[in-house]
Design goal:
The chain has about 280 residues and is mainly α. Helix content is about 70%, strand content about 0%.
Length: about 280
C-alpha cells in the first residue's frame, strides 16, 4: 500500500475518533490527546515503507527518531498537566460560552477536529518528500537534525520553567506575583515554548527539502504548507490566550510591551515613571 494512502486512512480514523468522542463526552480536547502521537505514527509509516522497499532510509529513520523524541517529550508534558485525565483545555470552555451550542459544534467539527487533524498530516509530509527522493543522507540533513534537536531542548527547558512556576504558584496558595512567568526564557519571549515548537517543524520541513534539492529540486515545495499553517495556528491561539491572561492580570500589558511575543529577543526597557 502507498504510505501516503495509509497515512490518510489513519488520519481519517483519528478524525472520526476525535469527533465521536467529543460528542459522547461533551468535551473537545481529544485532538490535543492525539497531537503528540499521530505525527510519530505518520513519519514512521514513511520510514518503514522505505525500509521495506530497500531504499536508502537513513534520512527517514533520522526524521522518525526526531519526531519520536518530540512526541515523547510533548506527551510527558501533557500527561503531567492532567491532559489524559479528562481535563479540557480551558480555552475551549471560554469559547463555548461565547457561542451558541450549534455554532460551537460546527467549530468543533470543522476546526478542532478536521482542520487540526489535517494539520497534523501536513506537518508530517516532509517525510513523504524524503520517501519520494531517497538520496543519501548529507551534511545539510545533519545540520537541520541538530537544529531540530536544539529546538527540542529549548522547548523542554521552557516547559520545565513554566511547570516549576505553576507548582510554586500552587504551593503559594494560587497567587504568585505578578501572576505569570517572566524569568528564565520567559524574560526574552512571552511564549518561548511556542516558538521552539514551531521552529522544530520548520527544521523538519528543511530536512525533507534537502532530499528534494539533492535530487535536483527546489528548497521550496508544497509541504511548506504544514509549517506555515502551524505558525498561523500558533499566532492565532497565542493572541486568544493572551487576551484571557491580560483580562486576569493588570501587569500583563507591561509584559507585552517589553517582551517579544514569540521569537526570543532582548527585553525592551520599561516605561520611566512619569514625574509630576
Amino acid at each position: 500500500m502507498d504510505p501516503l494512502l495509509l497515512v490518510l486512512l489513519v488520519a481519517g480514523a483519528a478524525s472520526a475518533f476525535c469527533w465521536i468522542t467529543s460528542l459522547i463526552t461533551n468535551e473537545t480536547s481529544w485532538v490535543d490527546r492525539l497531537w503528540s502521537i499521530v505525527p510519530v505514527a505518520y513519519v514512521w509509516i514513511f520510514a518503514v515503507a522505505a525500509l521495506i522497499e530497500g531504499a536508502d532510509a537513513t534520512r527517514l529513520v533520522v526524521m522518525a527518531l526526531l519526531v519520536t523524541a518530540w512526541g515523547a517529550r510533548l506527551t510527558f508534558n501533557f500527561a503531567r498537566k492532567g491532559g489524559y485525565t479528562g481535563m479540557e483545555d480551558y480555552r475551549w470552555a471560554i469559547l463555548r460560552a461565547r457561542m451558541k451550542r450549534w455554532q460551537f459544534q460546527v467549530f468543533n467539527l470543522l476546526f478542532i477536529v478536521l482542520f487540526q487533524n489535517a494539520l497534523l498530516v501536513l506537518i508530517s509530509l516532509p517525510a513523504y518528500i524524503a520517501w519520494q527522493h531517497p538520496v543519501p543522507f548529507n551534511g545539510w540533513d545533519a545540520a537541520f537534525a541538530v537544529l531540530f534537536a536544539a529546538f527540542l531542548v529549548g522547548e523542554t527547558v521552557a516547559d520545565q520553567q513554566q511547570w516549576d512556576f505553576h507548582q510554586a504558584k500552587k504551593a503559594a496558595g494560587g497567587t504568585l506575583e505578578p501572576g505569570f512567568l517572566t524569568t528564565g526564557l520567559f524574560a526574552y519571549s512571552r511564549h518561548p515554548n511556542f516558538f521552539f515548537e514551531q521552529a522544530q517543524w520548520w527544521a523538519f520541513y528543511a530536512i525533507g527539502a534537502v532530499a528534494l534539492v539533492a535530487d535536483g529540486g527546489s528548497w521550496l515545495n508544497w509541504t511548506i504548507a504544514g509549517a506555515a499553517l502551524l505558525t498561523v495556528l500558533f499566532i492565532g491561539s497565542t493572541i486568544f490566550t493572551e487576551s484571557i491572561t491580560a483580562s486576569k492580570y493588570s501587569a500583563y500589558a507591561e509584559y507585552q510591551r517589553t517582551t517579544s511575543m514569540l521569537v526570543p529577543l532582548p527585553r525592551r526597557r520599561s516605561k520611566a515613571p512619569e514625574t509630576a
